Amino acid sequence: MPNEPNASTGRPAGRYGAHADKPAPRWRRWALLAVGVVAVCVATFIGYQNLGSAPIEAERIGFTELPNNAMEIEFSVTRENPDKPVVCVVRTREVDGPESGRREVLVPPADDGYIARAVIKSGERPVTADVFGCSYTIPEYLAIP
After folding, report:
1. Region (Disordered): which ranges (predicted)?
2. Residue 30 has what pLDDT?
3. Same-domain check for residues 27 and 60
4. Domain around 24
5. Backbone dihedral region of 34: left (phi > 0), alpha (psi from -120 to 50 degrees) or beta?
6. Could you tell me which residue, 100 or 11, shows the higher pLDDT?
7. What pLDDT shows up at residue 74?
8. Average pLDDT score, the chain
């Protein structure tokens, strides 16, 4: 009879068709496992590159308000390669929070913990100053001759 249950699956063969419990080839399992391992390795590498320790770290030490909407910032720079110059972007903020002034500061090659100072002119009265970020990529107009 076509609707009798299939002995191996317990389902009616006439309704669902014959079912073969044929396992997947071994090579397919190993191939999927290899693809999974490679994907995890790639994701780990990209995560480390993006979220790992920064090659340059800058920390604000202090700031002083100056006349004519200007502010002086003092900050320390620590880097993986102290023999290379870096450029740091420093900025001021006004009382409501928006950025009101910005400046690029060339930090010459020096030992770790180099202390840099810069004066930032602001469009409005600044209330704070901070280091936005640093990079080994020096713009041509700041390059050391």
Report:
1. 1-20
2. 87
3. no
4. 13-51
5. alpha
6. 100
7. 95
8. 83
